[in-house]
Amino acid sequence: MGFDHYALMHHVDLTHYDPSLGHMDRGEMVALSNYPQAWVEEYIRRGIVSDDPILLASQRTNVGFTWDEVPSLIDFTAAHRALTDDTRRAGLWSGYTVPAHVPGEATGSCTFAMRVGRPLPMHNLAMAQLVGAFAFQAARTMVANARPQPAPRARKLTDRQLQCTILVGRGLNERQIAARLGISDETVKRHLKEARQAFQVAKSVQLVTRSLHYGQISLSDLVRD
After folding, report:
1. Among 50, 103, 110, 207, which residue carries the largest CB count within 10 Å?
2. The organism sits in which domain of life (predicted)?
3. In this structure, are residues 16 and 9 in contact, taking their beta carbons and an 8 Å threshold?
């Protein structure tokens, strides 16, 4: 999708986060990311989760928002401004966050972020909204040690179908995918058509979200190379 980083998390105390598990060592709480490790450690050490403006904004809306929109969603204080500056110094310059509200659970979110000097891929925010929602649900399932049921009559995608699906998820069109893989446009169209048929969906964005939900691709596959 053109993003550099991602983070999926329940908005809870992260002091019990176990990197080897990818979630809390107490309870079935999600905390997965490829953020810079130094920032993850500082974030946990400082207990930032309790006053993170991004997470506070997630409680005020059900739809995705860019980080630039946060001051319009919450009472944006000087402390929040300072934290935003710290985040940028850590290498996370801008982002898009998709809130996740599951009844009976702490609020969660899926965030896609950009490193310093790279703009948000605004043309892919609609896809990020869909992928983010599915990614959080898939992470909850993984943490609970449950496997999602396969899509009706779905089969495992071939390696080439997976490659095409991943590149669609990164925002490439069919011609760009063909150039990247060294195959013809028609071959790309055929692979994507057969992949959509495998999941019984009509659109490429549905193919990406289904592939993600059923574990055939991961969120890491969709961020920038």
Report:
1. 110
2. Bacteria
3. no
Cβ–Cβ contacts within 10 Å for residue 222, how many?
Answer: 27
Cα torsion angle, 165, 102, 20, 43, sign: positive
- CA atoms lying within 13 Å on the CB side of residue 217: 28
Domain architecture of the chain: domains with CATH: 5-143 (3.30.450.80), 159-222 (1.10.10.10)
List pLDDT tens digits, range 130-180: 888 888 877 776 666 544 445 455 578 999 999 999 999 888 899 999 999
Angle at 106 (CA atoms; ends 61, 54), nearest 5 degrees: 45
- Separation CA 11–CA 31 (nearest Å): 9
